[in-house]
Amino acid sequence: MFREQIKVLDCTIRDGGLINNHYFTDEFVRAVYKALSKSGIDYMEFGYRSSRELFPPEEFGAWKYCDDEKINQVIDGIESNLKISVMVDSYRVKEQIFVSADESPIDMIRAATYVKYMDSAIELIKKCHDLGYETTCNIMAVSREMEPDLVEGLDQLAKSPVDVVYVVDSFGAMYCEQVEYLVKLYGEHLPGKEIGIHCHNQQQLAFANTIEGIIHNANYLDGSLHGIGRGPGNCCLELLMGFLKNPKFNLTSVLKVIQDYMIPMRKEFEWGYIIPYMITGILNEHPRTAIAYRQTDDKDKYAEFYEKMRETQE
Amino acid sequence: MFREQIKVLDCTIRDGGLINNHYFTDEFVRAVYKALSKSGIDYMEFGYRSSRELFPPEEFGAWKYCDDEKINQVIDGIESNLKISVMVDSYRVKEQIFVSADESPIDMIRAATYVKYMDSAIELIKKCHDLGYETTCNIMAVSREMEPDLVEGLDQLAKSPVDVVYVVDSFGAMYCEQVEYLVKLYGEHLPGKEIGIHCHNQQQLAFANTIEGIIHNANYLDGSLHGIGRGPGNCCLELLMGFLKNPKFNLTSVLKVIQDYMIPMRKEFEWGYIIPYMITGILNEHPRTAIAYRQTDDKDKYAEFYEKMRETQE
């Protein structure tokens, strides 16, 4: 599969940061930036630009805020064509300040929102667009939205300056059929916009669903190193590179950073295919109950967890 | 997804046995049989019916041979509608003896073959069919066969009494597009036969590719508990049950046997998403080089392994 318009975004530091409150070391972030710069990947997402008023700095690492100075410090001296993105939860915005894009290391700002907060996303997108940033809207949890509400949101976005709108499978609940349906629906309602896809791996479908997105013309693809991300994690960047077969990609540098950093890190945090997340995935539920369960002594009592989860749905 | 004709086969003991030379304990095999009997799964595969002359009994456990008496002993006293299958490598047959199906606990015999040994598979299928067994042909390694050879084999099978012909992704190299193509090709050349699908998980696509098979009318589906199998393993049975949503399935009993047996077992053997297997998958190579590499001190030097493997292909 090779299509020139395809752009790949690595969300290792951003989505992985949800596991450890964004406390990655500078050494690790720098190693990832270096490896991705060599790999031919298009974007690297460093974290969130969050408000310190809403999220006190004593509770979170640097990548919860992604200050321009911090990014500049970490990437200093590394030769790179890699673009840099940060995410903003558009419904939890306070004093976040963005300078004009030409004064910032950041190239793209991704507005994450739920359908009901679409207005906040559009406001943020307009502001960032006017400052010269590329913008995306990542509409979360769409597997539980009613279609008219979603379509209304898409139609609003169509009139906004947003560059890319992402289909996000927050709960890892979708099969290829739902991905096909949504990517086509977004395409119809967003003429002239690019469609992106961000999948989670509750059911080992993050990579497959990303391929499904590609087949139906999604051109912005999210992955992370060895699939790191909260709970089951994301589409594995290394798998995506293998599929895309774009000669600009260098898989070796990505494999090297995985062996040097991700394998040791998995002894510290868990992510990947783990049954309680699989259960929330098949039940189309937020992973939070599984995350909490994995902190208890019963963490491997899968049958019991499944029965409990089912009861809450009946 | 619910289609009455769909049959699910668990190959935990058979494909899992490739990791430990078929030395599973009777207690474990019995626990699996009991759990699957409660789960509504259709078939359980116990192992291979191999020749003791070709595979000396001092080197292998009981499930390399699957004697009728051994199977009877292990299932004794368990209430069950589960059908039982065994696999035979049709090109490595010597003195294997089958009694008439009505005197055996075995319901189905699956002939595994490469395209070039198709005649041996058809001979075995005829013999077993005449003894009253259900039969399948599992054509391995088709991702490296030339199409005219494969089609010739399918056309031979069409004239045989075989009940089911499986698309087998031995190298875990296929994407949904290849699965769609082959399942349709098999369907066209095998009128009146059922199509099956058996996937490997090198690229985290075993489950997704099984779904792709279902969409294109494959009705016989292989899975294993927590995906156990050689190297990256198979499609996870628990994921397949979640997708199929057939009310006859009971996922709880499957989750229970996973928590009681598979999680502890994974401390003893490795299987699942492991980068060297991912590399053989994307390169469409037999996993044997990755299996060997995982036995060395270099087992986590992914970048080096990838470079070496690529050299062998250039």
Notes on the structure:
2 copies of one chain form a homodimer. Chain A is of the alpha/beta class and 314 residues long. Chain A folds into 2 domains: 259 residues, Aldolase class I (TIM Barrel, Alpha-Beta Barrel); 39 residues, no CATH class. In chain A, strands 1-2-3-4-5-6-7-8 form an 8-stranded parallel beta barrel, surrounded by 5 helices. In chain A, helix 7 links the parallel strand 7 and strand 8. The first copy, chain A, is globular.
Concise summary:
Chain A is globular, with a radius of gyration of 19 Å. Chain A contains twelve helices and eight strands.
How does the SSE layout of this entry go?
The structure is a homodimer of 314-residue chains.
Chain A: E1 7-10, H1 12-16, H2 26-39, E2 43-48, H3 68-75, E3 83-89, E4 108-113, H4 118-130, E5 134-139, H5 147-158, E6 164-169, H6 176-189, E7 194-199, H7 206-215, E8 220-223, H8 237-244, H9 251-265, H10 275-282, H11 288-293, H12 302-313
Parallel strand pairs in A: 1-2, 1-8, 2-3, 3-4, 4-5, 5-6, 6-7, 7-8
Helix pairs in contact in A: 2-9, 6-7, 10-12
